[in-house]
Amino acid sequence: xxxxxxxxxxxxxxxxxxxxxxxxxxxxxxxxxxxxxxxxxxxxxxxxxxxxxxxxxxxxxxxxxxxxxxxxxxxxxxxxxxxxxxxxxxxxxxxxxxxxxxxxxxxxxxxxxxxxxxxxxxxxxxxxxxxxxxxxxxxxxxxxxxxxxxxxxxxxxxxxxxxxxxxxxxxxxxxxxxxxxxxxxxxxxxxxxxxxxxxxxxxxxxxxxxxxxxxxxxxxxxxxxxxxxxxxxxxxxxxxxxxxxxxxxxxxxxxxxxxxxxxxxxxxxxxxxxxxxxxxxxxxxxxxxxxxxxxxxxxxxxxxxxxxxxxxxxxxxxxxxxxx
Length: 324
Ligand SMILES: Nc1ncnc2c1ncn2[C@@H]1O[C@H](COP(=O)(O)OP(=O)(O)OP(=O)(O)O)[C@@H](O)[C@H]1O
Ligand code: SF4
Ligand SMILES: [Mg+2]
Description:
The protein is of the alpha/beta class.
């Protein structure tokens, strides 16, 4: 694969002083091609946001990379200094959050917010930046005559605000957009529009996309490949259509048993209740497969050590003793 990004054995811990350290990511390993749209699927607490933040060098205080590497265009971001990271953040890798209202400045007009991002990374005159900002807003569906470009965030719907955030995210023509539950706070119609927009930008601008979601239906609409995460580990990786129709890992099978419904505005409403039991405590993991306590297909070996990667086909990997 001609990869843009290679995450190698990435292991991340959270542990403020006096707390038991939590293993939020463990040996996460995957590659992403420059023209690929990849989905990260997993229930709450599986490490999706931690992975997104690690890719941007934005782990919160208390979070640290314990081992592994993040190779992006030949640079290991784990070892990179703040100057290199600042150059990459928002310019080569952009992050789109779940809640657009928090990403925008409430007292600044829409076009000015895009101008601000442009001027942080590029040397442009005021006039050039304004023209570029209007171009970017047109790319996400706002014509100058729509009046949106001069509106304040509170005058826009949630979907319109998320479009503005996406205009900021593409402002410097990044090679990769990481979108962390970008449709969760939106109604059904806006969810669909944002997914179509992300998919179009991925094709039109030839940028790589990592789309994070709880909801398999969201990923089915927008990505070619899916990584399934459980308790900070990748448990399955494969082409989206194949993985969703014919999952291999017992966890993926469990969470897809409920079909592929789209529940409006649903991060909280939608949990994978069809997998009985709770995820393990990441501060007190037992040896063995992290899914063992909930797995209906558990075997004796599953409690002894963790399963290694098994390649089922060229582009399909699974971590489960059933396949070793
Ligand atoms: N700042 C932090 N300090 C300590 N622990 C954290 C912190 N952020 C996340 N965690 C823990 O790390 C684990 C992974 O969390 P993360 O937010 O990455 O999961 P997620 O898959 O994004 O979940 P969700 O679907 O709810 O957004 C969880 O156990 C969480 O409690
Ligand atoms: S390794 Fe064992 S416990 Fe883990 S998913 Fe496979 S069968 Fe289940
Ligand atoms: Mg998250």
